[in-house]
Design brief:
The chain is an all-alpha fold. It has 5 helices and no strands. Helix 4 runs antiparallel to helix 5.
């Protein structure tokens, strides 16, 4: 967990300072959803420009990973109305695994430098932040 990243991210949202814990959970989920959309867009842009077959394949698979990531985070957001925090936590953790899966694709032979390492790292931080808040709500 990156404390400075969490603090900076939460300080950017005007609602954070007046939010109760449930609202904070929603704010962190929405931030994670926004990052997943950015990552999916960036992966698609890189895919469209890439010509090396292996990178094309890895980026295509990452696009699928982020499609799944986005769906899981949106599912967690929908569950927020029911306050089913345990299921929300599972979905957020699965979303984090998908972004990690994307990053790890570039580490398997033939190894390539991931063009989206920074984006994948931010996704992990966003999902970590959401998980921490949701865990607090689940207790």
């Amino acid at each position: 967990m990156n404390y400075d990243f969490c603090k900076t991210t939460l300080d950017r949202h005007s609602r954070t300072h007046k939010a109760n814990m449930n609202e904070l959970g929603i704010i962190t989920l929405l931030a994670a959803i926004a990052q997943a959309r950015v990552n999916k867009y960036v992966v698609n842009e890189l895919f469209q420009k890439e010509i090396e077959p292996i990178m094309v394949e890895q980026l295509a698979n990452c696009f699928i990973d982020y499609t799944v990531t986005l769906g899981k985070l949106q599912g967690a957001y929908r569950l927020s109305y029911e306050k089913d925090y345990n299921s929300m936590i599972q979905l957020v953790n699965n979303a984090m695994k998908m972004s990690t899966k994307c990053e790890n694709r570039f580490r398997k032979p033939p190894i390539r430098t991931s063009p989206i390492t920074d984006y994948n790292q931010k996704m992990v931080w966003f999902t970590d932040m959401a998980s921490v808040v949701l865990e607090m709500l689940d207790n």
